[in-house]
Amino acid sequence: MTSPTGEDSSNIGRIALHLPVFWRNNVALWIRQCDSAFVLSQITQDETKYAALVSMLGPKTLSHVSDIIISPPAANKYITLSDRLIREFVDSEHQKIKNKKLLTELQLGDDKPSHLLRKMKELSGGQLQDEFLKKIMVDVDKAVAAAKEAFKNGSVWRTMDASERGRILNKFASLIERDVEYLANLNTLENGKPFKDSVGDVMFAVGTLKYYAGCADKIHGKTIPADGNSFSYTRVEPVGVCGLIIPWNFPLLLISNKVGPAIAAGNTIVLKPAEQTPLTAIYVANLVKEAGFPPGVINIIPGYGPTAGGALTAHLDVDKVSFTGSTEVGKLIQQAAGKSNTKRVTLEMGGKSPLVVCSDVDLDEAVQIAHDALFFNQGECCCAGSRTFVQEEIYDAFVAKSKELAMKRVVGDPFDEKTTQGPQIDDEQFDKILSLIESGKKEGAKLQCGGARHGSKGYFVQPTVFSDVKDNMRIAKEEIFGPVQQIFKFKTLEEAIERSNATEYGLAAGILTKDINKAILYSQQVRAGTIWVNCFFAGSVQVPFGGYKMSGQGREL
C-alpha cells in the first residue's frame, strides 16, 4: 500500500479514531458515515481517506478486497474501495434473500416473514437501485397469529401489570435514545431528509414513547350511578391485534406515534413500514427484543402496500388498523376493513392546508413561518402549509421576501451539515412534483424561482415559489408533497375563511395575525383538525392529531 502524503498523513491512526465503528451488518451506512466524518474533519486527499479506511477494516473484510489492497489504482483509491465494499454488501444481502434468510429478527414470535424488501437510494448520486428483491411474499398470517397468541387470555402480556408494560416501553424509548446517532443516520440514508432533522425525529419519538410509558398504568374506567341498590362501572380495555401501516416521510416518528399508545393500552401489534423506508423499522425490531417485550407482542413485516398492507387490512384476526398515508390508499383500507370483519379504522391521510397571513403581522416573521410551513422535510409533510393566503396590502412585499428566502435554501447531500433540503423520496414522487410544477406554469401562475430539477442527477427539486395562484389551478387543489410554495392573494378575512374551506381536505390550517378576534374567528370557522395561530408545525404528544373530510377519521396521540 502506498504511503499517504499531505494532510494528516503522519497519523492515520488518529484520523481513524474519528471514524464511526465499523458496522459489518451495514457497510453501506458505515461508508456514508465515513464520508461525513471526513468532511467534518476537513480531510480531502484521496490517499489519506483510503489509508484511514483500510486501517479500520479487519482481516476478514480485507480478504474480500485483496486485489485492491495489493494493487491499488493510481487514483481514486478511496472511491474504488468504498464502492467495492458497498457492491459486495448489496450482493451479499441479495443472496440472503434468495436463501430466505433475514438480516435481523423481524418478528418476535417463533416464525419470521419469508422475505425482506429494501429499496435504497444512492443519495448523493440519486439513482434508485433495488438492494433486495422486488417480489416479496410476506407471511402476514404468521405475524397476525403471533400477535393473536400473545393477546390470548392468560398470556404473559395479558397478565402483565400495567406498570410493567410502562417499564418495558420506557426501556424501549431509552434504547432508541441510546442509538440516536445510528437511527438518525439510517433515517437520512433511506429517507433523504437532512441529518439534523432526522436527529429531531428520533428525539421526538423518544419523548412520545416515554410519555405513553407513563400513561400505561393511568388508564381508568368510570363508576356510574344506577337506580336502586346497584352500581355500574366501565373498563377501558385493549382492542386486540392492531395493524399499523407507516408512511415513508417520518419512518421512526410515526412508529412511535402508533406503537406508543397501542402498547400502553395493552394491545399487540403487526407493523408494516413503507416499502421505501423499511430499514428503520427493521433496526427497531432488535430494540424491541432488547427491551424485553414478550414474543409476538410487536411484529414487523416489511413489504409492498398492495400485498403486505392489503393482506393485513383484510385479515379477519386483525381488530384495528391505523393507517397514515395517501387519501387514495386510505379509501381502499376502509373498504377492505368493511368487507372483512368491520374492524376499527383510524385514517390520517392527505392535506392541502391553508396558512392565512393578515396584513397586521410582522412581515419578516410571517415570511419565515410560511417558508418553514411548506419547505420543512422537502415539503413531504401531510399537513404542510401548501396554500399561503396573503392579504393584498402586504402581498407584493411578502412574495419578494419569500422568493429571496427560498433561493437561499441549500439543496444537496443530506449528510452535509449545510444542507437544508435533501432529495425527494423516489422517482415516482420526483416526477409527480415536476409534473405539477409544469401545470402551474401552463395554467398561468407566476414562477418566482425554481421550477425544475436541481442538478443533473438525483431526485433533487429546486425550491419553487409560485405567486398569482388561482383556486382552480391544479397546484392549488392537489397535494404536491414537495418543495413548491403557492402564494394566493385575499382581501378580507371572511374571504380567506371561505377559500380555506374550499377543499376536499381538512387536516390542518393556520393564521398569522396580531388580532386575537381574527384568530378566534378563523379557528372556529375553518374545518380542520389542527389550527395553528402565529405558528406552524407546533406539535405536542399531549395533543390529539387528525383531520376532517378526506384527510381522515379518528385521532391519534
From TrEMBL:
A molecular-function term among this protein's GO annotations: oxidoreductase activity, acting on the aldehyde or oxo group of donors, NAD or NADP as acceptor
Entry-linked Gene3D superfamilies: Aldehyde Dehydrogenase, Chain A, domain 1, Aldehyde Dehydrogenase, Chain A, domain 2
Claim: Oxidoreductase is one of the keywords in the record: yes
Domain of life from the UniProt record: Eukaryota
Keywords attached to this entry: Oxidoreductase
Entry-linked InterPro entries: Ald_DH/histidinol_DH (IPR016161), Ald_DH_C (IPR016163), Ald_DH_CS_CYS (IPR016160), Ald_DH_CS_GLU (IPR029510), Ald_DH_N (IPR016162), Aldehyde_DH_dom (IPR015590), DUF7041 (IPR055469)
Active site residues of this protein: E348
Family membership: Belongs to the aldehyde dehydrogenase family.
Protein name, UniProt field: Aldehyde dehydrogenase, mitochondrial
Organism name: Trichonephila inaurata madagascariensis
